[in-house]
């Protein structure tokens, strides 16, 4: 969970018998300096020897925002923040906070260096969200790791299986965070919005006979649901939201204070890609005030970077523009429990 989970969370998940994951999407491995590799070393060190899943984003490469897109963003944020913050909003510059793995692939030397680094870490799984790298990269990674990708439809799951992936994370519509959708562009009419259960069964039937690990993800917050999916033939499940209130989560403060009555919404307006988050007055206001098409605002990576920078500045002024990623089952989050305790609850009754 990029920006939310920590190496301590990954270590605790693994200690509890799961496959702890480190989100690497915020690291820019195309950079000429070694900062990202240094950060990666620190993450691995902090997580200890239990790191098993290294997670990357692999979206289509986005262009630097045009002047008009940047101006539109400033106009929109001026509409949804107090007038006193106008100088801050006007001063926002956009950099790409989520450089795609595809961008690393465009530089053969950098790709080679990254693959060598990953080989030396020796993870059990390397996983991709928002798409997958080229076949030659997948083949290289498969020499030392299992390679997984996220699918939100049978079509995407087939694409992953046909391109040699070892496992498919089946992300249902109820899941928290960004929708890993990559074949259809974000258009509500072309996304079937399959629930985790519906997607799992459809893909299980559609990929019947192929040796691909199936991992349902979305709305799984109890041992009975974990057991249900395993009994139905899933090889594992992926869980995010259940860990959001743990001390190992960067958003624990917010999720320990929710009442459970809140609703979630799917919106692409803040980051540039559809994501499920807790509905907040800020989201309501930006959805209501927005008059731009998504393509008239800075693309994913840049829009999200602008939002995060502004959020940081406004937080320092005691003002929250809340965009807290979480799934539909967030109301079942167990508060004041550690990641290890949640893991023990989720796996109780499993052999
Ligand atoms: C806060 C948050 C951040 C997430 N970040 C990532 C990410 O960086 N990479 C990824 O593959 N999935 C990410 N996801 C999606 C999860 O991997 C998973 O599909 C989802 O959490 C499962 O549904 P659940 O939230 O209902 O448990 C994120 C989810 C949340 C809640």
From TrEMBL:
One Pfam match: NMO
Molecular function as annotated in GO: nitronate monooxygenase activity
Signal peptide extent: none
Domain of life: Eukaryota
InterPro entries for the chain: Aldolase_TIM (IPR013785), NMO (IPR004136)
Cofactor(s) the record lists: FMN
Keyword Transmembrane helix: no
Ranges annotated as spanning the membrane: none
Record's keyword terms, sorted: Flavoprotein, FMN, Monooxygenase, Oxidoreductase
Family: Belongs to the nitronate monooxygenase family. NMO class I subfamily.
Full protein name: Nitronate monooxygenase domain-containing protein
